[in-house]
Amino acid sequence: MNYYSIQVALQEVPGEISICFSICGCQIRCKGCHSTFLWKEENGLKLSKKVYIETLNKYKGFATCVLFMGGEWHQKELINYLKYAQKEGYKTCLYSGQKNIHKNILQHLTWVKTGKWIAKKGGLENPNTNQQFIEVQTNKILNHLFLKNY
Questions:
Q1: Which residue in 8, 23, 49, 82 could disulfide with 70, CB within 3.0 to 4.6 Å?
Q2: Are 93 and 113 in contact (CB under 8 A)?
Q3: Per-chain mean pLDDT for the chain
Q4: Closest CA to 75 of 47, 97, 99, 104
Q5: Residue 111 half-sphere exposure toward CB, CA atoms < 13 A
Q6: pLDDT per position as a tens digit, 77-106
Q7: Residue 116 DSSP code
Q8: Is the pLDDT of residue 150 over 70?
Q9: Residues 31, 34: Cα–Cα separation, whole Å
Q10: According to the model, what pLDDT value does residue 39 have?
Q11: Partners of residue 8 on adjacent β-strands
Q12: Alpha carbons 21 and 25: distance in angstroms, whole number
C-alpha cells in the first residue's frame, strides 16, 4: 500500500482533526478527479508500519481521527491500520468512491464517505450529491454537516 501524502485535515470529518493518508491505486478514476496522481499504484511511498505508528504517535493528543482517502483495495492492510488506530484511541474514517464497502472494513470505521465523484452532482457540500457521509454504527447519513447553511 503506497501513500502519496500524509496531511492534517480539518474539513473532511466534521468536528474532528484528522490525520489523512492519501492512498495510491484508485481504480475508479472519476471524470474530473482532482487527485489523478492517486490513480497509479506505484506513485508515492510504501506505507510501512513504522511510518504509520510514528505518524499516529506524532499527532496523539492533537488529532482525533485517522482518515484514509482510498485504500479499500488493500483490505487486509487497511483493516490492520484501522485496528491499530482504534487501539490508540483514534476515530476512523474512509473516503471511497465506491458505493458499497466490504463489511470487514466497515466494522473498523467510525465514518465512511461513499460514492464516486460526478461533477454535475458535486461533493458533500452540494445537497444534490450522490455521495454519502455515513456514521457507520447507526447507518445515519450526515451529509447535512457539510452544507453551508446548516
A1: 23
A2: yes
A3: 93
A4: 104
A5: 24
A6: 999 999 999 999 999 999 999 999 999 999
A7: -
A8: no
A9: 9
A10: 73
A11: 19
A12: 13
What is d(CA 93, CA 111) in angstroms, rounded to the nearest whole number?
Answer: 5
Cell 490492520 found at: 80
Q: Let me know the angle formed at the C-alpha of 41 by 10 and 129, rounded to the nearest 5 degrees.
A: 45
Q: Cα–Cα–Cα angle for 106, 74, 55, nearest 5°?
A: 85
Digit-coded pLDDT (tens) for 17-56: 999 999 999 888 877 777 867 777 888 999 999 999 999 9
pTM, whole model, 2 decimals? 0.94
Distance CA 50, CA 35 (A): 26
**DSSP β-bridge partners for residue 21:** 6, 68
Share of the chain above pLDDT 90, in %: 84
Q: Which CATH superfamily is 2-146 part of?
A: Aldolase class I (3.20.20.70)
Q: Cα torsion at 86, 106, 23, 15 (round to 10°)?
A: -60
Q: What is the DSSP string of 86-114?
A: HHTT-EEEEE-SSS---HHHHTT-SEEEE
Does residue 99 sit in helix, strand or coil? coil
Please name which of 70, 75, 58 lies closest in space to residue 19, comparing C-alpha atoms.
Answer: 58
Q: Is 70 helix (H, G, I), strand (E, B) or coil?
A: coil
How buried is residue 57: exposed, middle or buried, by Cβ count under 10 Å (0-12/13-18/19+)?
exposed
